[in-house]
Design goal:
Elements lengths: L1 H38 L1
């Protein structure tokens, strides 16, 4: 059972890390767009 729990814990951590990286990329894109709007 421990191996199964470890597996799902690792999968959850990978999903969280992936979502965090995607969110960071989206935030950077929004900041870029806002900066362009302010500059205009």
């Amino acid at each position: 059972m421990s191996n199964l729990s470890d597996y799902w814990l690792e999968r959850a951590q990978q999903a969280i890390q992936s979502e965090t990286l995607e969110d960071a990329a989206k935030v950077a894109e929004i900041e870029r767009i806002v900066a362009m709007m302010i500059a205009d």
